[in-house]
């Protein structure tokens, strides 16, 4: 893609993913510098003119060994603000994993609604648009922001991957909780279109309070079938491990998992290793650094989402349809990346 108006940046903590997006888009990452100062202070500035340009900054807001979620969020906000100061025509934050998206409502007296506060921060620095992937609660996300937002759901993307890997199995699509039933249904419908046959569904009752997960059990029939568990993220692994165990106890032949965000905590490695799960598919914007290398090699599928995000950026830049992209998924690869 050759267009001098488009500028694509990636901060250093997410540079590898940003380079994958740039390659898929057919552009180079725009040059910038980052400097560290005393007591954790920092600055980032563009080394290229952005006046009048359509600017995109790619940064997934998950923690890693070097930067906390809050550090990444702060760095991103300051850099976005500096691009507006430098007279960029439009600034879009491309945030595949949006931090604090699970804290979207009050579940206890005087609870914060942190999703709304994060939205206010992006708006305060003058962001024109925020693009993200598979948020926890779409309605809460859309209502939190007053600037333009674009949300990429992953059902078509995962349907292609799962159809190729599990298309010959007797599948049942399962949500690990009631809140994820619609997400699982969208993936089930995409799989039905891809496989040209109806698929059953099921869900589990789950309640979470003060970090503890409980619930009555499974609603639906998984006996003698291959279970596909569908969630938006895996962090500590508690929800997925519990769901897999309940499906196994209910007679499932095998359990596979699809989750957009593999933001694994260190404690997830042992829990997932011991769980009755064949493989887990996640997208590529959050490296699985916290997991045991052997587990990553033998049981984790990292699905290319960078090319898909790159296509979303191309369509935003050219006023193309993101609705069609979400519905159809990315175009089949024509060769190596």
Structural summary, described in words:
- The protein is of the alpha/beta class.
- The protein has two domains: 6-152 and 306-328, Rossmann fold (3-Layer(aba) Sandwich); 155-303, 3-Layer(aba) Sandwich (Rossmann fold).
- The chain is 35% helix and 24% strand.
- The strands form four sheets. It has a seven-stranded mixed beta sheet with strand order 12-9-8-13-14-15-16, sandwiched between helices.
- Helix 6 links the parallel strand 8 (171-175) and strand 9.
- Helix 1 (15-25) packs across helix 10 (306-317), helix 3 crosses helix 4 (138-144) and helix 5 (155-166) crosses helix 6 (181-195).
Name some characteristics of this structure:
337 residues, alpha/beta, Rossmann fold, 7-stranded mixed β-sheet, 5-stranded parallel β-sheet, 11 helices, disordered C terminus
Structure classification: alpha/beta
Q: How are the strands ordered across the major sheet?
A: 12-9-8-13-14-15-16
Write the element-wise H/E pattern from the N-terminal end onward: EHEEEHEHEHEHEHEEEEEHEHEHEHH
Helical amount: 25-40%
Number of strands: 16
Distance between the termini: 15 Å
